[in-house]
Amino acid sequence: MEQLIRGGTVLDPSQNLNGRFDILVKNGQIAAIAADIPATGCLVLDAADKIVIPGLIDLHTHLREPGGEAKETVETGSLAAAAGGFTGITAMPNTNPVLDDPRKISELLALAARAGHVRVWPVGALTKGSAGKELAELALMQRAGARAFTDDGRGVADAFLTRNAMLYCQALGVPFFEHCEDESLAGKGQLHEGVVAAKLGLPGITKSAETVMLARDLILAKETGCRLHIMHLSCQEAAEMICCAKAAGVSVTAEVTPHHLLLTEDAADGYNTNAKMKPPLRTADDTAALCKSLADGIIDAVATDHAPHTEIEKTGDFNSAPFGIVGLETAFPLLYTHLVQTGRLSLMQLVERMSTRPAAILGVPGGTLRPGAAADLVIIDTTAAWVIDRHAFFSKGKNSPFHGWTVYGVPALTMVGGRVVMKNNRIG
Amino acid sequence: MKGRSFLSTANLSPAELQQLLSLSQNYCDVNNNHRLLPHKLLRGKMIAPLFFEASTRTKVSFERAARNLGADLVDLQIGASSIIKGESVLETARTLQAMAIDALVVRHASSGLPAFLADNLHIPVINAGDGWHEHPTQALLDLLTISQEFGSFAGLNVLFLGDIRHSRVARSNLFAMQTLGIKVRMAGPPTLVPPEMKALGAEIVRDIDQAAAEADVVYLLRIQWERQQSGFVSSLSEYSKLYGMDEERLALLQSHAILLHPGPANVGVELSAAAYAWPRSRIEAQVNNGVAARMAVLHWLLAGD
Questions:
Q1: pLDDT tens for residues B254-264?
Q2: N or C: which end of chain A has fewer CB within 10 A?
Q3: Interface list for chain A against chain B, based on CB atoms closer than 8 Å
Q4: Do B26 and B54 reside in the same domain of the chain?
Q5: Structure ipTM
């Protein structure tokens, strides 16, 4: 059946499109975009007073399955994605067991197909068990469907192994996703090495724990020609290094999370475990620099680093709580409210950084409403306010520091391949 | 109905601090004159010390303080294992709460753990030292010792010397001393003095001899030998030469200045035997004041419910 998305303001960075258009969806694809398409024989989806954008794509999602089903499953994680306006997400390999061979990649894809809500692209481990000792079967995992490789949760400490993994990624044409963290510098650090850590009497994580590994990786990426993607930038210095590296011709891209754009170390004061993640929240100078770098395009993309944990794990003393917070259901509204409505980023830029650019980095279709493309799109309500209620998340993880925030720009409808998967927060 | 807890000095007002100090001084007078209290203020109350880290003086002085006030103590045999996590400690604490225990005295290696317990219980929690965070009853007994010497606080100059980074004693004192108008300076190895202490109100100084010469109180902190292993200092003997209190440095102090140490002291490392025995060392007075200060805190939290 044909569907007509009628009367919305359509924004598509891939075509630099911004205006009132109707979108005709046929056989799961975008059939036409034009003003006033006749609705004859179509199911009409009213988008009047709303915004229609290509579906969001998340470069950094932890689905926790297999092994962490109490925190999240592929099913609940994909529902959370759909509710947040994401039509495609990644599956990070730090599960139990780690996604480090082709069979586990295939099994993950089977789980995603069974859930069937949004597209799931597995990211394989760079090293066996992500132990940083031996290369994993990167080529075979790519054949099985892995779209990128990372040992996320930690960086690859060994420089020789990192260089070899980069040579493989370069040859395979896939991006190397790095979690920059020098463990000898980070130690048992719990939050940013700053005033709040000093006050709370907790070991800190310096910026150098991130930038020392980043510098190494930029050098190795230049030497190998590998496509390097730096995950979750947390500080001004890292953004400056990315800027220099791009100018020097290094094939590097970078992502930033909503929490590193909006929160500082102050959020952890009072031992708030929902403000504990890696890399840690830094200072107001850093959030300002990261926002500016995102607007300037130095930072290519926003990614959630959606990291669900159970309530019981996150309830406890700060030192024993695990790192990470959820993000899929709040990312777009938070940034729409705090970056777009405040004029720090245009809506077109935000959509580009959350949809078109991530698709290009991952090398997957999506991030566009061009005729012929899959009908992966989101209708956004920019007028209704939403008071974020962590208890109402589709995600099993309720560990959000944004509980109680009032935001705008809430996804009203999410469509994947022409199928409505979420509508007004109800499963389609 | 949630009881008040004693977790930190950071949120105590000048009036509250003065009230606690005056209570402490009263109990100090009673203890030193071997007088018996006219009535046992906390008769019928039951207090549970939960020490997940080794402690002699703090644990014994809390127990002594509780008994002096007529309270009973639950004798829990906890293996001094600091790896017991918050969630399991809360389980134990809830069990005690359910058995009508009136207050918990908690020491644990994890910063913030007593605050976490207090958030989840309705009985008062007393922080007897949490990680690197705070040791508020130590600060109270230190302030009591200082007030016995100087009468008032405003304008005093206190120098903390040593491992500031890992010191809950330094933090609790810093917060309380700022409230009372005391000027706090800190010095020590560059790896063990976080620059952020400046933002928290301390002045970080490099010239230790000059700072010592200007101080009314020199507070020496304990250095643990593990710091050598983990790369913070090269050797305890180098530490001792650079940051220790020896005869030469003692000679620089003002005639009215006093020496404090939270104990247990590494004689020969952060201070020489001569410094320990120096007539103006008040290290034993601190120990003596510990019982009175803890009686004051128990009184403040538990009397009159």
A1: 999 999 999 99
A2: N
A3: 193-195, 197-204, 270-271, 312, 315-320
A4: yes
A5: 0.92
